[in-house]
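hey can u run this one w/ NAI bound, need the structure tokens asap thx
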Amino acid sequence: MTYDIALLPGDGIGVEVVDATLPILEDAAERGGFSVETTRYDWGSERYLQEGAMMPADAIETLEGHDAILLGAVGHPDIPDHVTLRGMMLPIRKAFDQQVCKRPSVLFEGVESPLRGYEGEDIDFVVFRENTEGEYTDAGGHEHQGYAHEVAVQTAIYTRQGTEAIVREAFEAAEERDGRLTNVTKSNAQAHGMVFWDQIVAEIAEEYPEVTVERLLVDAASMDLVRRPDEFDVIVASNLFGDILTDLGAIVSGSMGLAPSANINVEGHSPSMFEPVHGSAPDITGEGVANPLATVLSVSMLFDHLGEDDAAANLWNAVASQLADDGAPRTPDLGGASGTESVVSDLRTRL
Ligand code: NAI
Ligand code: MG
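ok here u go:
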């Protein structure tokens, strides 16, 4: 079996962590008894600065034929963030109908949480974030710019199909895990879209009687992710709320450098995309200290998605074993003094 993976390293440390992860991806595939062919597309901010577009016009057709996509990050200090994000990541998520964004937050043994009193695997939850609509819908306008009556409108859209898709995936995950689902909305203030969302959660809950459903408003959920992160199992949230809560999830479980993510096309008619949660980190770009583990864990999720369970587990366990080992190299975000390359070399010995 050979899988055909598209690599989109992107910008900044995105390029560093994808390059560093490649040899591990190949090792893990070989041990898993399959091979991976990669095609690298150097799209992103450098291309934008030279040619005025992050990706070529036929980018989506080019990516369409691949089995999966591994993305680094996009973002450049000289280009507004909405240009980079809307020029590359959001169009891919939308074109390939990657409606489900799955982001696990695990406090690995040997990693220190900034919160007191938690250790190895006390924190272990997964956020299911709606990924192609909601607050990130490209609907709105900005008129009369520069005049006193200037106005900006940004509309959030919740479709029944999209909401059902994310909610159903979250229930499926809760059923396989500890049977607890937390539905995060803001239905007190946003009485149209969010009340509709709650209604769909209630409808689908009927199909999963063994899953306990808790409801939290997003402000209370933010507090509780700090106050009692160990009590969460599966969280389902809209695009914006899921985005915010997963940064919180990443940091309470140790570092942005450890948080992986999957953008999934549930029906399987288009490729899914896997990427670390973090951005291009211009503050550390070029220093060789970016933590590659979020990307390695994202590759584990990619293998899992392709049905290569052994290779997925092998990668995940290698990361867990390295983090649990006092003597292993660590990047500065985890309190160490090692660089990306030494973390990768050590990891290859653990596969
Ligand atoms: P960021 O995630 O790039 O960095 C936040 C902080 O975490 C920085 O101090 C950075 O050094 C640290 N950090 C992140 N990843 C790390 C890693 N692997 N190892 C060690 N430390 C790490 O977020 P920020 O600074 O808000 O955004 C920088 C750029 O990235 C912006 O242009 C933004 O638009 C873009 N961005 C892109 C994302 C993506 O492509 N998925 C997601 C978030 C931001
Ligand atoms: Mg984010």
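The pocket of magnesium ion (ligand 2) is lined by residues 243, 247 (CB under 6 Å). anyway lmk if its weird
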